[in-house]
Every structure is written in structure tokens, then in C-alpha cells.
Amino acid sequence: MMRIAVLGATGVVGRHVVPRLHEQGHEVRAVVLAEAEVEALRRRGVDATQGNIFDLHSLREAVKGCSAALHLATAAPRPGHAPNWQLNDRIRREGTANLLQACRSAGVQRFVQQSLAFLVGGTSDLVDETAPLLPATEVTASAIDAERLVAASGLDWVILRDGALYGPGTGREEHWAALARSGELSFPGDGSDYISQIHVADLAECFALACERAPSSSIISVVDDEPTTYRELFTYIARSEGAAVPTSGGASNFPSFRVTNSKARKDLGWQPFYRSYRSGLA
User: Fold this and answer.
1) Fold exhibited by the domain 3-120+128-170+198-223+260-273
2) How large a percentage of the chain has pLDDT more than 90?
3) What is the pLDDT at residue 166?
4) Where are the domains of the chain?
5) DSSP states of the chain as a string?
6) pLDDT for 76 beyond 90
7) Which among 2, 58, 8 has a CA at the least distance from the CA of 30?
8) For 50, how many CA atoms within 13 A lie in the half-sphere containing its CB?
9) pTM above threshold 0.85
């Protein structure tokens, strides 16, 4: 059993991770920004404390006495909203550096960082974690910087690179369905690019397992079993909504990425409950 600090405990991923850690027998310290969130968690029996990822002192207090820390704090723009990445970039760079320093000061050993599976995208070939990183873009540069900070930290670190996240709280499938119903859903380019997805519940399970099982200094991709093309995925969504087949020529927000989950299966003994979008979107 470990005492594990979870930064971003009430976020899209964190709120699924906290109960899974409890179910595995761990003690959890949920680190959140607002006092109201602290009180809400405590009413549910969760040890919660305030901590600001940009305030080193509060982080030191938050992780004191913990043997592991999960960095799940994020401010990624929600689907359908203006793509402002400034705060998210600051969390990845300044926030990650602060949390790493706090962990070193407090004697926290294991550090688990959330990152992005499409850092090794840009191809329709099936790739794993050893593929070269893509050149940095506005969306990926801060994630690459965060990974480098973690790898140089001297801690017992693990990086989980998640696929395109969907499921409760993400807003992604609702956004796609609304676009389909309004006739505005369109394939990026000609629809042949790949997307590797992961349901938020499966990602949370992987984070919980990584605390116990992940080899030190490892990078692990967390995606489902069936990377799919946008043409296949969006056609399925449109038909499910009784809408017309999407058109080509839509904006491409991410590179094509077709990533295997074989390392997560082997190193963590994990497998996705939602093996593909078909069960995940049911």
C-alpha cells in the first residue's frame, strides 16, 4: 500500500483515478485548487488538500508523507471551444518543474506524468514508444518539454502517453454527435489519417496500475486495441445519429497517429475494457 498524491484529482481523468486507487488499497491525497473541491472530496471520505501547481510551498505541503505523485493537472481546451493552450502549456512546463521539485524535497519516490500518444504520430504505420518524436508544434512543444523535465528529474518516473480521450466528462463524443446532427462533421483531409483513442475509464485504470507495476524510467502508450481512420470513425458516428455521411476537407487538429498498446499490456497487465470506439460509444 502507498500514499499517493494526485494533482488534478477532480479533473476529467483524476476523478476516475482517485476511486480506483482506493479500490486497490492505497491511501490517496487529492490535491485540488479550490476550497469547495476540498470540502466536496472530504464529504466522500477522501483525504483532500488545497495545492496550487504554481505555488511551490503549497505543493511541498501537499505531497509531504507521500511515496508517489500523479501529475494529472491540465487545462486543455474542451472540444468545440477556442484552442487557447497558454495555461495548459504553463502547467506542463512551470507546473511540472514545481511538482518535481516538491517531490524531491519531500522524499517522494515515484512520479507518474500524463502525456500525449500522438507525440510519435505523423504516419499511418503502427508505431510504439520507441518511434522518434514529431517536430514540436504549438500543441506538442510543452508536452515534449514536460517529458524531458520528468526524465531528467532523478526520480523513479513513469510517463503515460494517452490517446485521444473520450468518455464521461471529456465532451468529445457529444461534440462529434452534435456536429453530425447539424451536418457540420467532416473528415480531416480525406479521412485517411488515423486516430488512436482511449476511454477515460480505461486510462484511469492504467494510471492506477502504473503506480504499482510500471518499470522505472518507462514511457507507456495508453490507447485502445483498434486505431481507426477518421473516415471510419466519423461515418460510424454520423450513422448512429441518423445523419448524412460526413464530407472531406475538415480541419486537422492532430497528426495521424496509429499507436500500439502492447507495452501497456505487457508491463502493466492492463487491457482496455472498451477495446474500440464501437463499445466505447455504445
Assistant:
1) Rossmann fold (3.40.50)
2) 91
3) 97
4) 3-120+128-170+198-223+260-273
5) --EEEEETTTSTTHHHHHHHHHHTT-EEEEEES-HHHHHHHHHTT-EEEE--TT-HHHHHHHHTT-SEEEE----PPPTTS----HHHHHIIIIIHHHHHHHHHHHT--EEEEEEEGGGG-SSSS-B-TTSPPPPP-TTTHHHHHHHHHHHTS-SEEEEEEE-EEESTTT-HHHHHHHHHHHT--EEETTS--EE-EEEHHHHHHHHHHHHHHPPTTEEEEE--S--EEHHHHHHHHHHHTT-PPPEEEE---S----B--HHHHHHH----SS-SHHHHT-
6) no
7) 8
8) 6
9) yes
Dump pLDDT digits (tens) for 21-43. 999 999 999 999 999 999 999 99
Cell triple for 35: 476550497
Instruction: Supply 251's cell numbers.
Output: 480541419
